[in-house]
Protein backbone atom coordinates (compact mmCIF):
# COMPACT_ATOMS: atom_id res chain seq x y z
CA UNK A 1 0.00 0.00 0.00
CA UNK A 2 1.55 3.28 -1.14
CA UNK A 3 2.02 5.98 1.49
CA UNK A 4 0.01 9.11 0.57
CA UNK A 5 1.63 12.55 0.75
CA UNK A 6 0.25 15.33 2.94
CA UNK A 7 -1.31 17.07 -0.06
CA UNK A 8 -3.01 13.82 -1.06
CA UNK A 9 -4.47 13.42 2.45
CA UNK A 10 -5.83 16.96 2.26
CA UNK A 11 -7.31 16.29 -1.18
CA UNK A 12 -9.01 13.11 0.02
CA UNK A 13 -10.47 14.99 2.97
CA UNK A 14 -12.02 17.62 0.70
CA UNK A 15 -13.32 14.95 -1.71
CA UNK A 16 -15.04 13.16 1.18
CA UNK A 17 -17.78 15.78 0.99
CA UNK A 18 -19.34 13.64 -1.78
CA UNK A 19 -19.64 10.53 0.43
CA UNK A 20 -22.57 9.20 2.44
CA UNK A 21 -21.43 7.99 5.85
CA UNK A 22 -22.17 7.94 9.55
CA UNK A 23 -20.24 7.59 12.78
CA UNK A 24 -19.72 8.63 16.36
CA UNK A 25 -17.40 11.41 17.51
CA UNK A 26 -15.86 12.00 20.91
CA UNK A 27 -14.22 15.33 21.70
CA UNK A 28 -12.48 15.94 25.03
CA UNK A 29 -9.97 18.32 26.56
CA UNK A 30 -10.19 21.87 27.88
CA UNK A 31 -11.98 24.82 26.30
CA UNK A 32 -10.76 28.38 25.92
CA UNK A 33 -11.76 29.10 29.53
CA UNK A 34 -9.54 26.17 30.65
CA UNK A 35 -12.63 24.18 31.66
CA UNK A 36 -12.64 20.42 31.01
CA UNK A 37 -15.24 18.95 28.65
CA UNK A 38 -16.06 15.55 27.18
CA UNK A 39 -18.68 15.57 24.42
CA UNK A 40 -20.04 12.81 22.22
CA UNK A 41 -21.90 13.12 18.93
CA UNK A 42 -23.54 10.81 16.44
CA UNK A 43 -23.54 12.06 12.87
CA UNK A 44 -24.78 11.27 9.37
CA UNK A 45 -23.39 12.92 6.24
CA UNK A 46 -25.25 12.52 2.98
CA UNK A 47 -22.97 14.19 0.49
CA UNK A 48 -23.52 17.62 -0.98
CA UNK A 49 -23.49 19.30 2.41
CA UNK A 50 -26.24 17.20 4.01
CA UNK A 51 -25.73 16.70 7.76
CA UNK A 52 -27.55 15.33 10.76
CA UNK A 53 -25.79 15.75 14.10
CA UNK A 54 -27.10 14.47 17.41
CA UNK A 55 -25.71 15.04 20.89
CA UNK A 56 -26.89 12.78 23.71
CA UNK A 57 -29.64 11.52 21.39
CA UNK A 58 -30.95 15.02 20.65
CA UNK A 59 -30.79 16.52 17.15
CA UNK A 60 -28.70 19.71 17.30
CA UNK A 61 -27.95 20.36 13.61
CA UNK A 62 -29.62 19.50 10.30
CA UNK A 63 -28.57 20.54 6.82
CA UNK A 64 -30.71 19.29 3.92
CA UNK A 65 -30.03 18.98 0.19
CA UNK A 66 -31.99 22.16 -0.63
CA UNK A 67 -29.77 24.21 1.67
CA UNK A 68 -32.19 24.41 4.60
CA UNK A 69 -30.24 24.65 7.85
CA UNK A 70 -31.96 23.94 11.18
CA UNK A 71 -30.14 24.30 14.50
CA UNK A 72 -31.13 23.61 18.11
CA UNK A 73 -30.95 26.87 20.08
CA UNK A 74 -32.25 27.21 23.64
CA UNK A 75 -34.36 24.09 23.36
CA UNK A 76 -36.02 24.93 20.03
CA UNK A 77 -35.16 24.13 16.43
CA UNK A 78 -34.48 27.30 14.47
CA UNK A 79 -34.38 27.56 10.69
CA UNK A 80 -31.48 29.71 9.58
CA UNK A 81 -32.10 32.35 6.90
CA UNK A 82 -31.23 31.77 3.25
CA UNK A 83 -27.55 32.41 2.58
CA UNK A 84 -26.63 32.07 6.24
CA UNK A 85 -23.11 30.82 6.90
CA UNK A 86 -23.29 27.03 7.13
CA UNK A 87 -21.84 26.55 10.59
CA UNK A 88 -23.08 26.16 14.15
CA UNK A 89 -21.56 26.04 17.59
CA UNK A 90 -22.72 22.51 18.25
CA UNK A 91 -19.74 21.66 20.46
CA UNK A 92 -17.36 23.28 22.92
CA UNK A 93 -14.38 22.95 20.59
CA UNK A 94 -14.94 20.60 17.64
CA UNK A 95 -17.92 18.93 16.01
CA UNK A 96 -18.56 16.51 13.12
CA UNK A 97 -18.55 19.52 10.78
CA UNK A 98 -14.77 19.58 11.27
CA UNK A 99 -14.20 16.10 9.88
CA UNK A 100 -14.45 16.58 6.11
CA UNK A 101 -15.15 18.84 3.17
CA UNK A 102 -14.69 22.49 2.39
CA UNK A 103 -15.52 23.59 5.95
CA UNK A 104 -13.39 20.98 7.72
CA UNK A 105 -10.82 21.59 10.40
CA UNK A 106 -8.06 21.38 7.80
CA UNK A 107 -9.49 24.39 5.97
CA UNK A 108 -9.43 26.40 9.20
CA UNK A 109 -5.83 25.61 10.10
CA UNK A 110 -3.04 28.02 9.37
CA UNK A 111 -1.50 27.50 5.94
CA UNK A 112 1.87 27.91 7.65
CA UNK A 113 1.46 24.57 9.44
CA UNK A 114 3.42 21.80 7.73
CA UNK A 115 3.68 18.04 8.00
CA UNK A 116 6.74 17.08 10.04
CA UNK A 117 6.95 13.47 8.90
CA UNK A 118 5.71 10.99 6.34
CA UNK A 119 2.31 9.46 6.99
CA UNK A 120 2.31 6.23 8.97
CA UNK A 121 -0.17 3.36 8.61
CA UNK A 122 -2.10 2.71 11.85
CA UNK A 123 -5.55 1.47 12.88
CA UNK A 124 -8.41 3.47 14.37
CA UNK A 125 -11.40 1.51 15.62
CA UNK A 126 -10.30 -1.42 13.46
CA UNK A 127 -10.04 0.61 10.23
CA UNK A 128 -6.93 1.33 8.15
CA UNK A 129 -5.81 4.87 8.89
CA UNK A 130 -2.98 7.23 7.98
CA UNK A 131 -1.37 9.18 10.84
CA UNK A 132 0.87 12.21 10.51
CA UNK A 133 1.99 15.25 12.50
CA UNK A 134 1.73 18.95 11.80
CA UNK A 135 4.20 21.45 13.22
CA UNK A 136 2.72 24.68 14.59
CA UNK A 137 3.82 27.94 12.90
CA UNK A 138 6.28 28.68 15.73
CA UNK A 139 7.72 25.18 15.46
CA UNK A 140 7.35 24.58 19.20
CA UNK A 141 4.55 21.96 19.15
CA UNK A 142 3.11 19.22 16.97
CA UNK A 143 -0.47 18.07 16.42
CA UNK A 144 -1.19 14.46 15.52
CA UNK A 145 -3.81 13.96 12.81
CA UNK A 146 -5.09 10.70 11.35
CA UNK A 147 -7.30 10.09 8.31
CA UNK A 148 -9.41 7.09 7.41
CA UNK A 149 -7.82 5.37 4.41
CA UNK A 150 -11.09 4.41 2.69
CA UNK A 151 -12.97 7.70 3.07
CA UNK A 152 -10.36 10.38 3.74
CA UNK A 153 -12.20 11.88 6.72
CA UNK A 154 -10.36 13.06 9.83
CA UNK A 155 -10.77 10.36 12.48
CA UNK A 156 -8.20 11.28 15.12
CA UNK A 157 -6.59 14.42 16.49
CA UNK A 158 -4.33 14.74 19.53
CA UNK A 159 -3.16 18.17 20.62
CA UNK A 160 -0.09 19.00 22.77
CA UNK A 161 -2.37 20.05 25.65
CA UNK A 162 -4.19 16.75 25.81
CA UNK A 163 -7.14 17.51 23.55
CA UNK A 164 -8.65 14.52 21.77
CA UNK A 165 -10.93 14.13 18.74
CA UNK A 166 -11.75 10.54 17.75
CA UNK A 167 -14.25 8.98 15.34
CA UNK A 168 -15.61 5.46 15.90
CA UNK A 169 -18.39 3.33 14.38
CA UNK A 170 -17.65 4.74 10.93
CA UNK A 171 -19.90 3.31 8.21
CA UNK A 172 -20.16 4.12 4.49
CA UNK A 173 -23.35 3.90 2.40
CA UNK A 174 -24.32 4.10 -1.24
CA UNK A 175 -26.95 6.63 -0.19
CA UNK A 176 -28.73 7.87 2.93
CA UNK A 177 -32.43 8.72 2.61
CA UNK A 178 -33.11 12.46 2.43
CA UNK A 179 -35.63 12.24 5.30
CA UNK A 180 -32.67 11.73 7.64
CA UNK A 181 -31.64 15.32 7.00
CA UNK A 182 -35.00 17.07 7.33
CA UNK A 183 -36.88 18.25 10.41
CA UNK A 184 -40.60 17.47 10.64
CA UNK A 185 -41.21 18.92 14.09
CA UNK A 186 -41.97 22.52 15.14
CA UNK A 187 -39.45 25.07 13.93
CA UNK A 188 -38.92 28.80 14.41
CA UNK A 189 -37.43 31.07 11.76
CA UNK A 190 -34.26 32.55 13.21
CA UNK A 191 -35.10 35.91 11.63
CA UNK A 192 -38.71 36.02 12.83
CA UNK A 193 -39.24 38.60 15.54
CA UNK A 194 -35.66 39.82 15.11
CA UNK A 195 -36.74 43.46 15.46
CA UNK A 196 -39.36 42.79 18.11
CA UNK A 197 -37.70 42.36 21.53
CA UNK A 198 -41.09 41.81 23.17
CA UNK A 199 -41.87 38.87 20.88
CA UNK A 200 -38.43 37.40 21.55
CA UNK A 201 -38.88 37.81 25.30
CA UNK A 202 -42.36 36.26 25.20
CA UNK A 203 -41.04 33.23 23.32
CA UNK A 204 -38.17 32.84 25.75
CA UNK A 205 -40.52 33.13 28.74
CA UNK A 206 -42.72 30.42 27.23
CA UNK A 207 -39.74 28.07 26.98
CA UNK A 208 -38.30 28.86 30.41
CA UNK A 209 -41.70 28.51 32.08
CA UNK A 210 -42.08 25.05 30.57
CA UNK A 211 -38.60 24.07 31.77
CA UNK A 212 -39.31 25.27 35.30
CA UNK A 213 -42.59 23.30 35.38
CA UNK A 214 -40.74 20.19 34.24
CA UNK A 215 -37.97 20.62 36.79
CA UNK A 216 -40.54 20.87 39.58
CA UNK A 217 -42.11 17.51 38.60
CA UNK A 218 -39.25 15.29 37.35
CA UNK A 219 -40.68 11.94 38.45
CA UNK A 220 -44.11 12.60 36.97
CA UNK A 221 -42.50 13.83 33.76
CA UNK A 222 -40.38 10.70 33.44
CA UNK A 223 -43.37 8.42 33.98
CA UNK A 224 -45.47 10.35 31.45
CA UNK A 225 -42.83 10.21 28.70
CA UNK A 226 -41.61 6.66 29.38
CA UNK A 227 -44.83 5.12 28.09
CA UNK A 228 -44.91 6.95 24.75
CA UNK A 229 -44.02 5.41 21.40
CA UNK A 230 -42.80 8.44 19.41
CA UNK A 231 -42.05 12.15 19.57
CA UNK A 232 -45.64 13.22 18.91
CA UNK A 233 -46.98 11.07 21.75
CA UNK A 234 -44.22 12.31 24.06
CA UNK A 235 -45.04 15.93 23.21
CA UNK A 236 -48.74 15.34 23.87
CA UNK A 237 -47.92 13.70 27.21
CA UNK A 238 -45.84 16.71 28.29
CA UNK A 239 -48.53 19.17 27.16
CA UNK A 240 -51.20 17.27 29.10
CA UNK A 241 -49.07 16.93 32.24
CA UNK A 242 -47.63 20.44 32.46
CA UNK A 243 -50.24 22.48 30.59
CA UNK A 244 -47.61 24.00 28.30
CA UNK A 245 -47.62 24.75 24.56
CA UNK A 246 -46.09 22.53 21.87
CA UNK A 247 -43.08 24.87 21.83
CA UNK A 248 -42.66 24.48 25.59
CA UNK A 249 -43.11 20.71 25.38
CA UNK A 250 -40.42 20.40 22.71
CA UNK A 251 -38.06 22.47 24.86
CA UNK A 252 -38.70 20.09 27.77
CA UNK A 253 -38.09 17.02 25.60
CA UNK A 254 -34.82 18.55 24.33
CA UNK A 255 -33.62 19.39 27.84
CA UNK A 256 -30.37 17.74 28.93
CA UNK A 257 -30.24 15.75 32.17
CA UNK A 258 -27.73 18.18 33.71
CA UNK A 259 -30.50 20.79 33.81
CA UNK A 260 -32.02 18.94 36.77
CA UNK A 261 -29.09 19.95 38.98
CA UNK A 262 -29.88 22.64 41.56
CA UNK A 263 -27.43 25.14 40.06
CA UNK A 264 -29.07 24.85 36.63
CA UNK A 265 -32.56 25.12 38.15
CA UNK A 266 -31.58 28.33 39.96
CA UNK A 267 -30.06 29.73 36.76
CA UNK A 268 -33.25 29.10 34.76
CA UNK A 269 -35.47 30.55 37.49
CA UNK A 270 -33.33 33.70 37.73
CA UNK A 271 -33.44 34.25 33.98
CA UNK A 272 -37.20 33.73 33.93
CA UNK A 273 -37.74 36.18 36.80
CA UNK A 274 -35.57 38.82 35.10
CA UNK A 275 -37.41 38.43 31.79
CA UNK A 276 -40.81 38.70 33.43
CA UNK A 277 -39.77 41.80 35.35
CA UNK A 278 -38.40 43.37 32.20
CA UNK A 279 -41.56 42.71 30.17
CA UNK A 280 -43.87 43.86 32.96
CA UNK A 281 -41.83 46.99 33.64
CA UNK A 282 -40.12 47.94 30.37
CA UNK A 283 -37.55 50.70 30.30
CA UNK A 284 -38.63 54.18 29.23
CA UNK A 285 -36.61 54.18 26.00
CA UNK A 286 -38.01 50.87 24.78
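^ Assign residues to that structure.
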Amino acid sequence: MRTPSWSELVGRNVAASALSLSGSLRVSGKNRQDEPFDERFDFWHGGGGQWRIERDGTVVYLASADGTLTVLVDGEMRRQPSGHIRMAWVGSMFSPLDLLGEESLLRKMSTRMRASREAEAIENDGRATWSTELVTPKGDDTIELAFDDATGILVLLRSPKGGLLQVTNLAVYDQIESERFTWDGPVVDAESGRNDPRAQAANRIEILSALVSALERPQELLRAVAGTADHQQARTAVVDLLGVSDTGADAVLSMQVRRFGSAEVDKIQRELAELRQHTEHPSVDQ
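The chain has seven helices and 13 strands.
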